[in-house]
Design brief:
Chains A, B: This is DJ-1/PfpI domain-containing protein. 2 copies of one chain form a homodimer. The first copy, chain A, is α/β, with parallel strands linked by helices. Chain A has helices spanning 6-17, 58-69, 118-121, 125-136, 147-153, 169-174, 201-214, 216-225, 238-242; strands at residues 46-51, 75-81, 85-88, 94-97, 99-100, 109-112, 140-143, 161-162, 180-181, 187-190, 193-196. Chain A has a single domain (42-242), classed as Rossmann fold. Helix content of chain A is 33%, strand content 17%. The N and C termini of chain A lie far apart (40 Å).
Chain lengths: 247, 247
Protein backbone atom coordinates (compact mmCIF):
# COMPACT_ATOMS: atom_id res chain seq x y z
CA UNK A 1 0.00 0.00 0.00
CA UNK A 2 1.25 3.41 -0.81
CA UNK A 3 -0.36 6.80 -0.50
CA UNK A 4 1.67 8.28 -3.31
CA UNK A 5 1.17 8.80 -7.04
CA UNK A 6 3.50 8.02 -9.93
CA UNK A 7 4.79 11.59 -10.16
CA UNK A 8 6.04 11.45 -6.58
CA UNK A 9 7.58 8.04 -7.11
CA UNK A 10 9.40 9.29 -10.18
CA UNK A 11 10.65 12.39 -8.39
CA UNK A 12 11.94 10.47 -5.41
CA UNK A 13 13.43 7.72 -7.51
CA UNK A 14 15.36 10.44 -9.34
CA UNK A 15 16.56 11.89 -6.04
CA UNK A 16 17.62 8.48 -4.80
CA UNK A 17 19.31 7.60 -8.08
CA UNK A 18 21.15 10.89 -7.94
CA UNK A 19 22.47 9.79 -4.58
CA UNK A 20 21.16 12.77 -2.69
CA UNK A 21 21.14 12.05 1.02
CA UNK A 22 17.75 12.97 2.45
CA UNK A 23 18.80 12.99 6.07
CA UNK A 24 16.26 14.46 8.43
CA UNK A 25 16.65 16.02 11.81
CA UNK A 26 15.35 14.23 14.89
CA UNK A 27 16.55 11.00 16.38
CA UNK A 28 14.01 8.67 14.83
CA UNK A 29 13.87 10.17 11.36
CA UNK A 30 17.24 8.91 10.25
CA UNK A 31 16.66 6.49 7.39
CA UNK A 32 16.64 7.80 3.84
CA UNK A 33 13.16 7.57 2.47
CA UNK A 34 12.88 4.87 -0.17
CA UNK A 35 9.87 3.92 -2.27
CA UNK A 36 10.38 0.23 -1.65
CA UNK A 37 10.60 -1.45 1.76
CA UNK A 38 14.24 -2.10 2.70
CA UNK A 39 13.55 -5.85 2.99
CA UNK A 40 11.82 -7.71 0.13
CA UNK A 41 8.83 -9.93 1.01
CA UNK A 42 9.59 -13.62 1.59
CA UNK A 43 7.39 -16.52 2.60
CA UNK A 44 3.61 -16.45 3.06
CA UNK A 45 1.75 -13.43 4.42
CA UNK A 46 1.41 -13.22 8.19
CA UNK A 47 -2.13 -13.07 9.55
CA UNK A 48 -2.61 -10.40 12.24
CA UNK A 49 -5.78 -10.66 14.32
CA UNK A 50 -7.02 -7.71 16.38
CA UNK A 51 -9.44 -8.55 19.20
CA UNK A 52 -12.41 -6.18 19.58
CA UNK A 53 -15.00 -5.69 22.32
CA UNK A 54 -17.56 -2.99 23.11
CA UNK A 55 -15.74 -0.02 24.58
CA UNK A 56 -12.35 -0.68 22.98
CA UNK A 57 -10.01 2.32 22.76
CA UNK A 58 -9.71 3.66 19.19
CA UNK A 59 -5.98 4.35 19.04
CA UNK A 60 -5.09 1.11 20.85
CA UNK A 61 -6.49 -0.66 17.81
CA UNK A 62 -5.75 1.65 14.91
CA UNK A 63 -2.29 2.94 15.83
CA UNK A 64 -0.74 -0.54 15.56
CA UNK A 65 -2.91 -1.42 12.53
CA UNK A 66 -1.77 1.73 10.70
CA UNK A 67 1.84 0.60 11.10
CA UNK A 68 1.25 -3.05 10.12
CA UNK A 69 -1.09 -1.86 7.36
CA UNK A 70 1.94 -0.33 5.62
CA UNK A 71 3.16 -3.90 5.04
CA UNK A 72 0.23 -5.07 2.93
CA UNK A 73 2.45 -7.31 0.81
CA UNK A 74 3.35 -9.35 3.89
CA UNK A 75 0.61 -8.84 6.50
CA UNK A 76 -3.15 -9.46 6.35
CA UNK A 77 -5.30 -7.86 9.05
CA UNK A 78 -8.43 -9.55 10.45
CA UNK A 79 -10.73 -8.22 13.16
CA UNK A 80 -12.06 -10.70 15.72
CA UNK A 81 -14.74 -10.33 18.39
CA UNK A 82 -17.30 -12.34 20.31
CA UNK A 83 -19.21 -12.55 17.02
CA UNK A 84 -18.81 -11.07 13.55
CA UNK A 85 -20.39 -7.65 12.98
CA UNK A 86 -20.22 -4.10 14.34
CA UNK A 87 -18.37 -3.36 17.58
CA UNK A 88 -18.61 0.07 19.19
CA UNK A 89 -15.52 1.88 20.51
CA UNK A 90 -15.51 3.83 23.76
CA UNK A 91 -15.45 7.09 21.79
CA UNK A 92 -18.43 6.07 19.64
CA UNK A 93 -17.26 4.99 16.14
CA UNK A 94 -18.00 1.39 15.24
CA UNK A 95 -15.70 -1.11 13.56
CA UNK A 96 -16.66 -4.42 11.97
CA UNK A 97 -15.40 -7.75 13.30
CA UNK A 98 -14.70 -10.07 10.35
CA UNK A 99 -14.89 -13.18 12.54
CA UNK A 100 -16.26 -14.40 15.81
CA UNK A 101 -13.86 -16.24 18.12
CA UNK A 102 -15.44 -19.55 17.07
CA UNK A 103 -14.52 -19.10 13.39
CA UNK A 104 -11.31 -17.11 13.74
CA UNK A 105 -8.55 -18.20 11.36
CA UNK A 106 -5.17 -19.43 12.57
CA UNK A 107 -3.10 -16.33 13.37
CA UNK A 108 0.58 -15.45 13.35
CA UNK A 109 0.07 -12.38 15.54
CA UNK A 110 -2.79 -11.57 17.92
CA UNK A 111 -3.29 -8.14 19.48
CA UNK A 112 -5.48 -7.31 22.48
CA UNK A 113 -6.35 -3.64 22.98
CA UNK A 114 -7.53 -1.82 26.08
CA UNK A 115 -10.30 0.62 26.78
CA UNK A 116 -13.09 1.01 29.31
CA UNK A 117 -14.72 -2.17 28.01
CA UNK A 118 -11.96 -4.19 29.69
CA UNK A 119 -13.63 -3.47 33.05
CA UNK A 120 -16.63 -5.52 31.88
CA UNK A 121 -14.73 -8.21 29.97
CA UNK A 122 -12.55 -9.28 32.92
CA UNK A 123 -15.80 -10.59 34.40
CA UNK A 124 -16.87 -12.32 31.17
CA UNK A 125 -15.72 -15.95 31.47
CA UNK A 126 -16.55 -16.81 27.85
CA UNK A 127 -14.58 -13.85 26.52
CA UNK A 128 -11.58 -14.64 28.74
CA UNK A 129 -11.61 -18.29 27.68
CA UNK A 130 -11.69 -17.30 24.01
CA UNK A 131 -8.84 -14.81 24.44
CA UNK A 132 -6.83 -17.42 26.35
CA UNK A 133 -7.27 -20.00 23.59
CA UNK A 134 -6.40 -17.46 20.87
CA UNK A 135 -3.28 -16.33 22.72
CA UNK A 136 -2.18 -19.91 23.45
CA UNK A 137 -2.56 -20.87 19.79
CA UNK A 138 -0.73 -17.82 18.38
CA UNK A 139 3.07 -17.54 18.27
CA UNK A 140 3.16 -13.76 18.85
CA UNK A 141 0.85 -12.04 21.34
CA UNK A 142 0.70 -8.27 21.80
CA UNK A 143 -1.35 -6.22 24.25
CA UNK A 144 -1.96 -2.49 24.18
CA UNK A 145 -2.85 -0.39 27.22
CA UNK A 146 -5.22 -2.18 29.63
CA UNK A 147 -5.34 -5.11 27.19
CA UNK A 148 -2.58 -6.54 29.39
CA UNK A 149 -5.10 -6.58 32.26
CA UNK A 150 -7.37 -8.79 30.15
CA UNK A 151 -4.55 -11.15 29.27
CA UNK A 152 -3.35 -11.20 32.89
CA UNK A 153 -6.83 -12.26 34.02
CA UNK A 154 -6.57 -15.39 31.82
CA UNK A 155 -3.55 -16.48 33.88
CA UNK A 156 -1.45 -16.94 30.73
CA UNK A 157 1.19 -14.36 31.65
CA UNK A 158 1.85 -15.38 35.26
CA UNK A 159 5.60 -14.94 35.73
CA UNK A 160 5.89 -13.02 32.46
CA UNK A 161 7.18 -9.43 32.30
CA UNK A 162 4.52 -6.97 31.14
CA UNK A 163 3.44 -3.35 31.37
CA UNK A 164 0.14 -1.46 31.05
CA UNK A 165 -1.56 1.95 31.04
CA UNK A 166 0.01 4.19 33.70
CA UNK A 167 -3.25 5.96 34.70
CA UNK A 168 -5.01 2.61 35.16
CA UNK A 169 -1.99 0.89 36.69
CA UNK A 170 -3.63 -0.22 39.96
CA UNK A 171 -6.59 -1.76 38.13
CA UNK A 172 -4.55 -3.46 35.41
CA UNK A 173 -1.98 -4.99 37.75
CA UNK A 174 -4.73 -6.23 40.08
CA UNK A 175 -5.90 -8.54 37.26
CA UNK A 176 -2.78 -10.71 37.64
CA UNK A 177 -0.88 -10.68 40.93
CA UNK A 178 1.70 -13.15 39.57
CA UNK A 179 2.57 -11.14 36.46
CA UNK A 180 6.04 -9.52 36.58
CA UNK A 181 4.68 -6.00 36.10
CA UNK A 182 7.16 -3.34 34.92
CA UNK A 183 5.89 0.16 35.86
CA UNK A 184 8.48 2.20 33.94
CA UNK A 185 8.40 1.14 30.27
CA UNK A 186 6.96 2.32 26.95
CA UNK A 187 6.69 -1.34 26.07
CA UNK A 188 8.01 -4.68 27.38
CA UNK A 189 8.90 -7.86 25.49
CA UNK A 190 9.16 -11.28 27.14
CA UNK A 191 9.25 -14.33 24.92
CA UNK A 192 6.22 -14.45 22.67
CA UNK A 193 4.49 -11.70 24.67
CA UNK A 194 4.87 -7.97 24.07
CA UNK A 195 2.87 -5.35 25.99
CA UNK A 196 2.65 -1.58 25.76
CA UNK A 197 1.87 1.23 28.14
CA UNK A 198 -1.27 3.36 27.56
CA UNK A 199 -3.01 4.11 24.26
CA UNK A 200 -0.38 5.92 22.13
CA UNK A 201 2.38 3.59 23.38
CA UNK A 202 0.85 0.81 21.27
CA UNK A 203 2.03 2.53 18.11
CA UNK A 204 5.63 2.64 19.33
CA UNK A 205 5.35 -1.00 20.40
CA UNK A 206 3.96 -1.98 16.99
CA UNK A 207 7.04 -0.50 15.34
CA UNK A 208 9.16 -2.37 17.89
CA UNK A 209 7.41 -5.57 16.84
CA UNK A 210 7.94 -4.75 13.16
CA UNK A 211 11.64 -4.25 14.02
CA UNK A 212 11.69 -7.67 15.70
CA UNK A 213 9.95 -9.40 12.78
CA UNK A 214 11.49 -7.54 9.82
CA UNK A 215 14.46 -5.56 11.17
CA UNK A 216 14.87 -2.03 12.50
CA UNK A 217 15.33 -0.46 9.07
CA UNK A 218 11.90 -1.76 8.09
CA UNK A 219 10.38 -0.20 11.22
CA UNK A 220 12.05 3.14 10.45
CA UNK A 221 10.82 2.95 6.88
CA UNK A 222 7.24 2.44 8.07
CA UNK A 223 7.61 5.30 10.57
CA UNK A 224 8.91 7.64 7.86
CA UNK A 225 6.13 6.71 5.44
CA UNK A 226 3.53 7.45 8.08
CA UNK A 227 5.36 10.67 9.08
CA UNK A 228 5.63 9.23 12.56
CA UNK A 229 8.41 10.04 15.00
CA UNK A 230 8.98 6.61 16.41
CA UNK A 231 10.11 6.50 20.02
CA UNK A 232 12.57 3.63 19.55
CA UNK A 233 13.65 3.34 23.19
CA UNK A 234 11.23 0.97 24.95
CA UNK A 235 12.48 2.10 28.37
CA UNK A 236 11.75 5.82 27.82
CA UNK A 237 8.50 6.43 29.74
CA UNK A 238 7.76 9.88 31.20
CA UNK A 239 4.17 8.85 31.93
CA UNK A 240 5.15 6.51 34.78
CA UNK A 241 6.47 9.39 36.86
CA UNK A 242 3.59 11.63 35.78
CA UNK A 243 1.25 9.09 37.38
CA UNK A 244 3.27 8.72 40.55
CA UNK A 245 4.77 5.35 39.64
CA UNK A 246 8.42 4.47 40.34
CA UNK A 247 10.71 5.75 37.61
CA UNK B 1 -14.48 9.13 29.20
CA UNK B 2 -11.76 7.76 31.37
CA UNK B 3 -9.83 4.54 31.22
CA UNK B 4 -9.15 4.48 34.92
CA UNK B 5 -10.78 2.92 37.94
CA UNK B 6 -11.73 4.45 41.26
CA UNK B 7 -8.60 3.20 43.03
CA UNK B 8 -6.36 5.07 40.58
CA UNK B 9 -8.47 8.18 40.86
CA UNK B 10 -8.23 8.06 44.62
CA UNK B 11 -4.49 7.50 44.54
CA UNK B 12 -3.87 10.38 42.17
CA UNK B 13 -6.27 12.70 43.95
CA UNK B 14 -4.29 12.03 47.12
CA UNK B 15 -1.04 12.84 45.36
CA UNK B 16 -2.48 16.04 43.93
CA UNK B 17 -3.99 17.04 47.27
CA UNK B 18 -0.64 16.45 48.90
CA UNK B 19 0.80 18.97 46.46
CA UNK B 20 3.35 16.60 45.00
CA UNK B 21 4.59 17.92 41.67
CA UNK B 22 4.44 15.14 39.12
CA UNK B 23 6.67 16.80 36.57
CA UNK B 24 7.72 14.57 33.72
CA UNK B 25 10.70 14.72 31.45
CA UNK B 26 10.25 15.65 27.81
CA UNK B 27 9.15 18.94 26.34
CA UNK B 28 5.51 18.08 25.77
CA UNK B 29 4.85 16.20 29.00
CA UNK B 30 4.86 19.21 31.25
CA UNK B 31 1.39 19.55 32.75
CA UNK B 32 0.62 17.83 36.03
CA UNK B 33 -1.78 15.01 35.42
CA UNK B 34 -5.22 15.77 36.80
CA UNK B 35 -8.29 13.56 36.89
CA UNK B 36 -10.56 16.33 35.67
CA UNK B 37 -10.08 18.38 32.49
CA UNK B 38 -8.49 21.75 33.30
CA UNK B 39 -11.46 23.58 31.78
CA UNK B 40 -15.04 22.68 32.85
CA UNK B 41 -17.61 22.01 30.09
CA UNK B 42 -19.75 24.96 29.04
CA UNK B 43 -22.42 25.31 26.38
CA UNK B 44 -23.82 22.56 24.17
CA UNK B 45 -21.73 19.66 22.90
CA UNK B 46 -19.89 20.22 19.64
CA UNK B 47 -20.68 17.82 16.82
CA UNK B 48 -17.57 16.52 15.02
CA UNK B 49 -18.16 14.81 11.67
CA UNK B 50 -15.49 12.61 10.10
CA UNK B 51 -15.82 12.02 6.36
CA UNK B 52 -15.18 8.44 5.18
CA UNK B 53 -14.63 6.90 1.75
CA UNK B 54 -13.33 3.52 0.54
CA UNK B 55 -9.57 3.45 0.95
CA UNK B 56 -9.35 5.99 3.78
CA UNK B 57 -6.17 5.88 5.86
CA UNK B 58 -6.76 4.39 9.33
CA UNK B 59 -4.65 6.73 11.44
CA UNK B 60 -5.82 9.83 9.54
CA UNK B 61 -9.25 9.08 10.96
CA UNK B 62 -8.59 7.50 14.33
CA UNK B 63 -5.63 9.56 15.57
CA UNK B 64 -7.72 12.76 15.66
CA UNK B 65 -10.81 10.90 16.91
CA UNK B 66 -8.82 9.38 19.80
CA UNK B 67 -7.87 12.89 20.93
CA UNK B 68 -11.36 14.41 20.54
CA UNK B 69 -12.85 11.22 22.00
CA UNK B 70 -11.20 12.13 25.31
CA UNK B 71 -13.63 15.08 25.49
CA UNK B 72 -16.84 13.05 25.52
CA UNK B 73 -18.56 15.54 27.80
CA UNK B 74 -18.20 18.25 25.16
CA UNK B 75 -17.77 16.55 21.78
CA UNK B 76 -19.98 14.04 19.92
CA UNK B 77 -18.41 12.14 17.02
CA UNK B 78 -20.39 11.16 13.91
CA UNK B 79 -19.09 9.31 10.85
CA UNK B 80 -20.30 10.47 7.43
CA UNK B 81 -19.90 8.90 3.99
CA UNK B 82 -21.61 8.68 0.62
CA UNK B 83 -24.22 6.55 2.39
CA UNK B 84 -24.62 5.05 5.88
CA UNK B 85 -23.02 1.65 6.44
CA UNK B 86 -19.62 -0.04 6.30
CA UNK B 87 -16.67 1.73 4.68
CA UNK B 88 -13.40 -0.12 4.07
CA UNK B 89 -10.03 1.43 4.93
CA UNK B 90 -6.98 1.07 2.72
CA UNK B 91 -5.46 -1.36 5.22
CA UNK B 92 -8.61 -3.53 5.30
CA UNK B 93 -10.59 -2.89 8.52
CA UNK B 94 -14.07 -1.48 8.00
CA UNK B 95 -15.75 1.33 9.90
CA UNK B 96 -19.42 2.24 9.92
CA UNK B 97 -20.73 5.53 8.58
CA UNK B 98 -23.60 6.74 10.79
CA UNK B 99 -24.96 9.04 8.08
CA UNK B 100 -24.89 9.57 4.36
CA UNK B 101 -24.09 13.09 3.15
CA UNK B 102 -27.79 13.65 2.42
CA UNK B 103 -28.85 13.13 6.05
CA UNK B 104 -25.74 14.43 7.82
CA UNK B 105 -26.51 16.56 10.88
CA UNK B 106 -25.35 20.15 11.22
CA UNK B 107 -21.72 20.04 12.34
CA UNK B 108 -19.43 22.25 14.38
CA UNK B 109 -16.26 20.58 13.05
CA UNK B 110 -15.78 18.53 9.90
CA UNK B 111 -12.65 16.45 9.21
CA UNK B 112 -11.54 15.08 5.85
CA UNK B 113 -8.92 12.31 5.95
CA UNK B 114 -6.56 11.10 3.22
CA UNK B 115 -5.60 7.70 1.92
CA UNK B 116 -5.31 6.03 -1.46
CA UNK B 117 -9.08 6.40 -1.98
CA UNK B 118 -8.54 10.13 -2.54
CA UNK B 119 -7.11 9.29 -5.99
CA UNK B 120 -10.55 7.99 -6.98
CA UNK B 121 -12.67 10.56 -5.14
CA UNK B 122 -11.05 13.60 -6.82
CA UNK B 123 -12.77 12.34 -9.97
CA UNK B 124 -16.12 11.77 -8.23
CA UNK B 125 -18.19 14.92 -8.84
CA UNK B 126 -20.98 13.90 -6.43
CA UNK B 127 -18.52 13.23 -3.62
CA UNK B 128 -16.71 16.53 -4.21
CA UNK B 129 -19.98 18.46 -4.26
CA UNK B 130 -21.06 16.85 -0.97
CA UNK B 131 -17.70 17.60 0.68
CA UNK B 132 -17.86 21.18 -0.60
CA UNK B 133 -21.33 21.71 0.86
CA UNK B 134 -20.37 20.14 4.17
CA UNK B 135 -17.21 22.27 4.44
CA UNK B 136 -19.07 25.46 3.45
CA UNK B 137 -21.75 24.83 6.07
CA UNK B 138 -19.33 23.98 8.92
CA UNK B 139 -17.50 26.65 10.94
CA UNK B 140 -14.33 24.57 11.46
CA UNK B 141 -12.85 22.43 8.69
CA UNK B 142 -9.85 20.12 9.20
CA UNK B 143 -8.02 17.96 6.67
CA UNK B 144 -5.51 15.22 7.38
CA UNK B 145 -2.84 14.05 4.94
CA UNK B 146 -4.08 13.96 1.31
CA UNK B 147 -7.52 15.03 2.53
CA UNK B 148 -6.31 18.53 1.68
CA UNK B 149 -6.04 17.39 -1.95
CA UNK B 150 -9.74 16.49 -1.85
CA UNK B 151 -10.70 19.83 -0.34
CA UNK B 152 -8.43 21.67 -2.79
CA UNK B 153 -10.24 20.00 -5.70
CA UNK B 154 -13.54 21.52 -4.53
CA UNK B 155 -12.03 24.99 -5.06
CA UNK B 156 -12.98 26.05 -1.53
CA UNK B 157 -9.42 26.71 -0.36
CA UNK B 158 -8.14 28.73 -3.29
CA UNK B 159 -5.90 31.40 -1.77
CA UNK B 160 -5.94 29.62 1.60
CA UNK B 161 -2.73 28.38 3.28
CA UNK B 162 -2.62 24.58 3.57
CA UNK B 163 -0.26 21.64 3.78
CA UNK B 164 -0.47 17.91 2.92
CA UNK B 165 1.35 14.56 2.96
CA UNK B 166 5.02 15.06 2.06
CA UNK B 167 5.40 11.80 0.09
CA UNK B 168 2.33 12.61 -1.99
CA UNK B 169 3.10 16.32 -2.23
CA UNK B 170 3.13 16.58 -6.04
CA UNK B 171 -0.24 14.85 -6.36
CA UNK B 172 -1.93 16.72 -3.52
CA UNK B 173 -0.79 20.18 -4.61
CA UNK B 174 -1.82 19.46 -8.22
CA UNK B 175 -5.44 19.26 -7.02
CA UNK B 176 -5.51 23.00 -6.34
CA UNK B 177 -3.05 25.26 -8.16
CA UNK B 178 -4.42 28.36 -6.41
CA UNK B 179 -4.03 27.00 -2.87
CA UNK B 180 -1.21 28.67 -0.87
CA UNK B 181 0.60 25.37 -0.24
CA UNK B 182 3.12 25.33 2.63
CA UNK B 183 5.64 22.49 2.12
CA UNK B 184 7.38 22.69 5.50
CA UNK B 185 4.78 22.35 8.26
CA UNK B 186 3.41 19.71 10.63
CA UNK B 187 0.09 21.51 10.31
CA UNK B 188 -1.19 24.86 9.01
CA UNK B 189 -4.11 26.97 10.20
CA UNK B 190 -5.77 29.67 8.08
CA UNK B 191 -9.10 31.03 9.21
CA UNK B 192 -11.64 28.26 9.57
CA UNK B 193 -9.35 25.78 7.79
CA UNK B 194 -6.68 23.66 9.41
CA UNK B 195 -4.66 21.05 7.50
CA UNK B 196 -2.02 18.53 8.53
CA UNK B 197 0.90 16.83 6.88
CA UNK B 198 0.84 13.04 6.37
CA UNK B 199 -0.98 10.44 8.47
CA UNK B 200 0.51 10.77 12.00
CA UNK B 201 0.58 14.57 11.71
CA UNK B 202 -3.21 14.58 12.01
CA UNK B 203 -2.92 13.62 15.67
CA UNK B 204 -0.65 16.59 16.44
CA UNK B 205 -2.99 18.85 14.47
CA UNK B 206 -6.01 17.55 16.40
CA UNK B 207 -4.33 18.54 19.65
CA UNK B 208 -3.56 21.92 18.07
CA UNK B 209 -7.26 22.27 17.29
CA UNK B 210 -8.20 21.26 20.83
CA UNK B 211 -5.77 23.95 22.04
CA UNK B 212 -7.49 26.49 19.79
CA UNK B 213 -10.98 25.49 20.94
CA UNK B 214 -10.33 24.77 24.63
CA UNK B 215 -6.87 26.14 25.46
CA UNK B 216 -3.38 24.64 25.43
CA UNK B 217 -3.68 23.16 28.92
CA UNK B 218 -6.65 21.13 27.75
CA UNK B 219 -4.65 19.82 24.78
CA UNK B 220 -1.76 18.85 27.09
CA UNK B 221 -4.19 17.14 29.44
CA UNK B 222 -5.58 15.06 26.55
CA UNK B 223 -2.04 14.23 25.38
CA UNK B 224 -1.03 13.09 28.86
CA UNK B 225 -4.14 10.96 29.30
CA UNK B 226 -3.45 9.21 26.01
CA UNK B 227 0.27 8.88 26.90
CA UNK B 228 1.00 10.86 23.75
CA UNK B 229 4.03 13.07 23.28
CA UNK B 230 2.39 15.94 21.51
CA UNK B 231 4.58 17.77 19.01
CA UNK B 232 3.29 21.25 19.88
CA UNK B 233 5.31 23.17 17.28
CA UNK B 234 3.31 23.23 14.04
CA UNK B 235 6.39 24.35 12.08
CA UNK B 236 8.59 21.41 13.12
CA UNK B 237 8.55 19.08 10.09
CA UNK B 238 11.53 16.79 9.39
CA UNK B 239 9.51 14.90 6.77
CA UNK B 240 9.56 17.79 4.28
CA UNK B 241 13.34 17.58 3.89
CA UNK B 242 13.22 13.76 3.95
CA UNK B 243 11.04 13.95 0.85
CA UNK B 244 13.21 16.51 -0.92
CA UNK B 245 10.89 19.45 -0.27
CA UNK B 246 12.17 22.91 0.68
CA UNK B 247 12.79 23.19 4.40
Amino acid sequence: MSDQPKADVARRNFLLTAGIALAATGTTVSAQLSVQPPVPPSGPKKKLGMVLFDGFELLDVFGPLEMFGMLKDRVEIVMIADKAGPVRSGAGPQTIADHGFADAPKLDIVMIPGGLGTRREVNNADFLAAVRTLAQDTPQVATICTGSGLLAKTGLIDGVKATSNKMAWAWATAQGAKVAWIPHARWVEDGKYISSSGISAGTDMALGLIAKLYGKEMARWVANRTEYRWQEDASDDPFAKLNGLPG
